[in-house]
Specification:
Blueprint (H helix, E strand, L loop, with lengths): L6 E6 L4 E8 L3 E9 L1 H5 L6 H23 L8 E7 L3 H18 L3 E5 H7 L12 E6 L4 E8 L2 E7 L5 H11 L6 H9 L24 H17 L5 H27 L3 E5 L6 H14 L2 E3 L11 H12 L17
Parallel strand pairs: 1-4, 4-5, 6-9, 9-10
Antiparallel strand pairs: 1-2, 2-3, 6-7, 7-8
């Protein structure tokens, strides 16, 4: 008899995207739906937690139904249900966790809880060749900037993290100060391609010898001070040069600290993950440095860099294979660590 294939339905509601995906055997994506709230939050210049939670409540059950319809499946054909339970906005997380727990209980299906940052890392396994361990993972997003060592599936060692702003948060704040809008990352990246990254001398925060931590608050403040001085003096600001110089500072620190970790720890593979891993300059510079150092580099397709449920399903797949299951006490943990 042929063994039935494993099918996992996953839900992601950690911030402002309501996402549902169905994954077969950890690789075959049967459905991947995302309802984005970007246009809703643009008028506020950032995510409003209460509004995000309300929109998740409106969309999550509809997306689950649509995902099953797209995949041509019914609930009894699922092997397990997975959900992001942290980190993230507590109200947003609770919508996903409560919905999936209720479904798992009523359908008598295994329940799997997934760390959102873990999901970002596992976006690299979607449609990729087999990735081998050990490796260093650089997680860069609106809420996180971390360097993680992985020596196997589900085995994580935190090597460094931001001491203040996450890199995506810094992008959003600088973009807002420059009057570009929200979300700032893609807008600054596009503008930076038109400018000179050496036009302005902006700080790089190395944080001392041997540190793998990050800090972007000083860089953000330097940009704000530059804009304020220009305004007071009535001087014109070359927006493209400012964007390029800001991005050059960010990318250099991210890339060099990742390379230093790989060299010091003897890790032959680099993974990038999170929304900022879609940044064109970061991809280009990391690729160049990894080639120089003889390191393998992976990063997800752009559609899997931002929040999605396919990555949550992929991470859940490896937990499912190890026999891990969540209990009915699974709850939202907004400050969940990896």
């Amino acid at each position: 008899m042929t063994q039935e294939k494993e099918i996992i339905l996953a839900v992601e509601t950690s911030c402002d995207e309501t996402a549902v995906a169905i994954l077969r055997d950890g690789r075959e994506l049967l459905s991947n739906l995302v309802f984005s709230q970007i246009k809703i939050h643009q008028q506020f210049g950032g995510v409003v937690p209460e509004i995000a939670a309300r929109k998740h409540l409106e969309q999550v059950n509809l997306l689950i139904s649509l995902a099953l319809e797209e995949a041509g499946l019914t609930f009894p054909q699922l092997s397990a249900l997975a959900v992001t339970y942290g980190p993230g906005l507590v109200g947003a997380l609770l919508i996903g966790v409560s919905t999936v727990k209720a479904l798992a209980y009523s359908l008598n299906l295994p329940l799997l809880g997934v760390n959102h940052m873990e999901g970002h890392l596992y976006a690299n396994w979607l449609g990729q060749e087999q990735i081998t361990f050990p490796l260093v993972g650089l997680i860069v997003s609106g809420g996180h900037t971390s360097l993680i060592e992985m020596r196997g599936h589900g085995e994580y060692l935190l090597l460094g993290q931001t001491q203040d702003d996450a890199v995506g948060e810094a992008y959003d704040k600088v973009a807002r100060a420059m009057g570009l809008g929200y979300p700032g990352g893609p807008l600054l990246d596009a503008l930076a391609r038109e400018g000179n990254g050496e036009a302005l001398s902006l700080p790089r925060a190395w944080l001392g010898e041997g540190s793998f931590d990050f800090s972007f608050s000083g860089l953000k403040t330097a940009v704000l001070n530059y804009l304020n001085r220009a305004s007071l003096k009535g001087e014109a600001v070359n927006q493209a040069d400012l964007a390029a110089s800001f991005q050059a500072s960010v990318v250099e620190v991210l890339v060099e600290k990742t390379i230093r970790v790989a060299r010091k720890k003897g890790l032959p593979t680099v993974l990038m993950a999170g929304g900022v891993s879609a940044n064109s300059s970061l991809r280009e510079q990391m690729r160049k440095r990894c080639e120089q150092e003889g390191l393998r580099l992976y990063y997800p397709p752009v559609e899997f860099c931002t929040d999605n449920a396919a990555m949550i399903a992929c991470a859940a797949h490896y937990r499912y294979l190890k026999g891990e299951r969540a209990d009915w006490y699974l709850n939202a943990i907004p400050q969940l660590r990896l």
